[in-house]
Amino acid sequence: MNYYPVSIRNVIKGLSKLPGIGEKTAERLAMHILRAPNDEALKLSRSIAELKEKTKLCTKCFALSDGDICDICSDPSRDRGLLCVVEQPAEMVAIEKSGAYNGLYHILQGLLSPVEGIGPKDIRIDELRSRAADGRIREIVIATGTSVEGESTASYIAEAMAQYRIKITRIASGVPIGGDLKYVDQITLRRAMETRYVL
């Protein structure tokens, strides 16, 4: 790669660190950026800088947001009595794309994993308890994946929420066992949301 100037090598090196981007793809992307009009390249670099500067977690649901409260939490048309619990923002986006859900979210930012030393204090369980205790939630939909960690987290949440007068449901079949929720197609995810069951 020494046949490229340092400026190009640095871009190729940086791009190749992105998930799913090998050195050849990084090289093609760097060449595309180099050939692109200056304003297009600068717009890309500004949007990356802005992503790092402005993106933070919503103070209510812990989704990615440009402000303190995300667009979903601030949307008055959302069903405020319905709360869907997911592992990460990617799962929330997958459910949103399905169009099968119109409630609010709670993003755990992880799953319970005793093997890795991740317990209830390491994910957003305490914040979920606070939301359940305020009396506005009538149903919690647990939409963690079907891995061992996802299932154990779902069971833990169901037990932790038992003290509140809240209906606890789990998304139904359609999501493959051992599958990762963010990779499930929208039709399967829609069916899973529409046929969720009580734990």
Please outline the helices and strands:
Elements: H1 6-15, H2 23-35, H3 38-54, E1 56-57, E2 64-65, H4 71-74, E3 79-86, H5 89-98, E4 103-107, H6 125-133, E5 139-142, H7 148-161, E6 167-170, H8 186-194, E7 197-198
Parallel strand pairs: 3-4, 3-5, 5-6
Antiparallel strand pairs: 1-2, 6-7
Helix pairs in contact: 1-2, 5-8
List keywords for this structure.
199 residues, alpha/beta, Helicase, Ruva Protein, domain 3, Dna Topoisomerase Vi A Subunit, Chain: A, domain 2, 5-stranded mixed β-sheet, elongated
Descriptive notes:
The chain has 199 residues and is α/β, with parallel strands linked by helices. It folds into two domains: 6-54, RecR Domain 1 (Helicase, Ruva Protein, domain 3), CATH 1.10.8; 64-198, 3-Layer(aba) Sandwich (Dna Topoisomerase Vi A Subunit, Chain: A, domain 2), CATH 3.40.1360. Helices cover 43% and strands 14% of the residues. The chain contains eight helices and seven strands; from the N terminus they run αααββαβαβαβαβαβ. The chain has helices spanning 6-15, 23-35, 38-54, 71-74, 89-98, 125-133, 148-161, 186-194, and strands spanning 56-57, 64-65, 79-86, 103-107, 139-142, 167-170, 197-198. A five-stranded mixed beta sheet has the order 4-3-5-6-7. Strands 1-2 form a two-stranded antiparallel ribbon. Strand 3 (79-86), helix 5 (89-98) and strand 4 form a beta-alpha-beta unit. The longest helix has 17 residues, at 38-54. The protein is elongated. The mean pLDDT is 90.
